[in-house]
Specification:
The complex is a heterodimer of chains A (934) and B (72). Chain A has 934 residues and is an alpha/beta fold. Helices cover 29% and strands 17% of the residues of chain A. Chain B has 4 helices and no strands. The longest helix of chain B has 16 residues. The chains are: A alpha/beta (934), B mainly alpha (72).
Amino acid sequence: MNMVQQFDPAQVDMSRDLGTPGAHSDVMVNVFIDGMAVSVPEGTSVMRAAAMVGADIPKLCATDNLNAFGSCRLCLVEIEGRPGTPASCTTPCQEGMAVHTQTPRLDKLRKGVMELYISDHPLDCLTCPANGDCELQDMAGAVGLRTVRYGSEGENHLHKGKDESNPYFTFDASKCIVCSRCVRACSEVQGTFALTIAGRGFGSEVSPSEQQPFLDSECVSCGACVQACPTATLQEKSVIELGVPSRKVKTTCAYCGVGCSFVAELRGDEVVRMVPDKQGGANAGHSCVKGRFAWGYAQHQDRVTTPMVRDSIEDEWRPVAWDEAIAFAAERLNQIKATHGVDAIGGITSSRCTNEEVYVVQKMVRAAFGTNNVDTCARVCHSPTGYGLKQTFGTSAGTQDFASVEHADAIMVIGANPTDAHPVFGSRMKRRLRAGADLIVVDPRAIDLVRSPHIEAEHHLQLLPGTNVAVLNAISHVIATEGLIDEAFVAERCDMASFRAWESFIRLPENSPETLAEVTGVPAEAVRAAARAYATAGNAAIYYGLGVTEHSQGSTMVMAMANLAMATGNIGRLGVGVNPLRGQNNVQGSCDMGSFPHEFVGYRHVSDDTVREQFSTVWGVSLREEPGKRIPNMLDAAISGTFRGIYIQGEDIAQSDPNTQHVTAALKAMDCVIVQDLFLNETAQFAHVFLPGTSFLEKDGTFTNAERRINRVRPVMSSRTGLSEWEATCALSEAMGYPMPYQSASEIMDEIAALTPTFAGVSFELLDTLGSVQWPCNEQAPTGTPIMHKERFVRGEGQFITTPYVPTDERSTRKFPLLLTTGRILSQYNVGAQTRRTDNVVWHAEDVLDIHEADAEARGVKDGDWVEIASRAGATRMRVRISDDIPAGVVYTTFHHPVSGTNVITTDNSDWATNCPEYKVTAVEIRPAAEQPA
Amino acid sequence: MTTAPSAEHQRLVKMANQIASNIPTRTEVAAQVGHHLRQFWTPGMRAALAQIADDTPEQLSPEVHAALEGMA
């Protein structure tokens, strides 16, 4: 081993496939790969060590997001002092090991193996859709295969047919080499276990569920199998149709708050496929059916790409040039201002838009409109998160990064359904659960996590809708009265006066599980067991969703969770925390960007003179010191006649907001409704100006996901509307007399950074260098902050807040005896504007009402029947599905199709602190209905 | 002649009473309600609430009345 070269691990290109996953160990071992010395963590495979130094070993069954399998026999190596030729993927490096990856003996063995593979593989490379993007083809080249001695007359699989049932990918069994990468991806990465290898020996074949077509199987179409496949066996239909992509652009998904990074692969200006980015901080190379496949809406024929105006909502739309549309909108808004004052107009920002697009809208409202009447769609989802976490911890954001869940010993999921609504994070969570973390589910429904392959919730507190706070109080009562409080953490990190007040309150008998069992429907012993599990786990983490926030006590519940985490010391390190799972991809960002009527960017109140002065100086305009109207207040004022014009960015309030009749009456009452969107949505029926929006494939900017991760959104194709959304907003602002002369989205972010302490270090340049960054990102944390509140809370000391349970006004009665709760399913997204315009409709053609068998039977309703659902607010019709996922007395539906009119029946009850609507509790009655809705 | 309260006024009444009954820490409730109204309500909404307190005081809880008095 003379002339040894020492390899520098920092030189490794981590975007390459290193064959096996990295090992985590503080112990390093030194090995020699073809004479090159390299130091790797103990447990690293020989294959990975070799790949790190650039000595790629041929492989087929290995890939670095799956555990080593050792089946393809192509990655054989020779190791000095050892007999045989072990598989490098399953052989760990040991101190001093000397490995040879290329020898005459290995060449011969590898060629022999490849011959066998190729002898049972169609030799149609030139016409194969994976031609040029096929690992089997690459490996045949790598081993120097020139001839196949076995002919093609013997028994083979070449006659096997294709399964084309899935709308997005094809399974061509004739090309399968049974490497099991797809099966392992489905198990290890996605955690669905839909695939297996059926049969034995030569008869082995990949089987979805029990040899069913993919579409009929348990497959969730996440695409992990397609990505893992080294041949064209599992192939995107778009690649089959369009060909292998020729260029790539990294960007960020436009769906849920996980904010997955993708590589958009294109031919010219046409997207061929979206591939999850292995280096994506949020998703680490995984995806779900929406992000991976459901991007076709961007080119859907329903998309409107030309501005339109009309004098009255009774008139037909009139397509016009941008200039005319902007002038029309500006004139109307200025006219309203002149006649009725600045408080008569306002705007709504969208969590589907970039930080930069949101920032300019709220700036336009404050500076050009002259009012703080700006709100955001987060009003109807996570506004209680903002209120509750700011009161207790000092800032409105989740405490952890997603990777933190890998260190949790107990996971409490409250009012969230990660496998459907945040599927990529759900897969990450499931991996930890399969590794042994305890699971506590607090939900009226038996969500998938309660019982799914290799996962079973140890505790499912199946509470009645509307009793979250009572259950959390009962859990905290157990912790306080059974000596489970982390006294040292509380003493060191929290405000003791507030703790003592909280402790006195929570110990009251009225908060005991026994007292509250009748209210919550949860047996006291189940609450006690869950409380003990959470408090004694070691690292306990809370993940929650809209099942927490969309209640009359949504804000109280957020504070109750924060109290629980502080009382048990589960804040400020890996594996713990209080983590909101945000619904839309930029909920965090739209809130960060000053979209609320009482706050400037960075959650600073408009009444703070110092802050207001700072914004006034930079913006060159006087700003108001009083809060503006929230969405419901704007709508109420519209009906009263005092609010007459609104700019709605990327939001469909006529479908998504509660009490549809009230919303539409308010929109009808206005003189100027401006809708900026991809499609003529339900709200656009009441609009006078339609400004065409851009899809995420056309946007240039940033999204901020649920873990505060700021990711770049890069334009994959040119804008189909001729303007970016921020340019359209700036044009309107200028037409109203307040120019915003930005030259680029990057310049807008620079202004955000200059005005926002938590964003001070953020720039497009930094994001392009690091890939992404989690705020706070500033001088103290130049590369961001994955975990918050480590040494101290943002507010200094953690603030306990007492949380009395106050029942909602919305209660079941003899007239409305059932409680309706709502949610989301995997294939669809929010009001369905995007996903309904993709092939995802094959999984969800309509919304249905889930009902318990006993409730259905009592009403003479059978599975599949149409029913009328009536509440105090209104009535609609749906088909029913008998389900044992919900208890008797509770019904459940989704709101993905406008025809369902789910929000016709939801009421305008809302969270006491934030007005977040109480979507999760509506008292209803159902009765059989003969016909479908019109 | 009495007119039916508008949806806007009904909402303000409901919001104010709900804030008063839900303010978490049950000490100095009126002051907390007042603080909340200043933090999150527009001056117009606060003025409308004060008018409701004068016109139809029975609609508002004692804590809301106390809060309005404290803000005056």
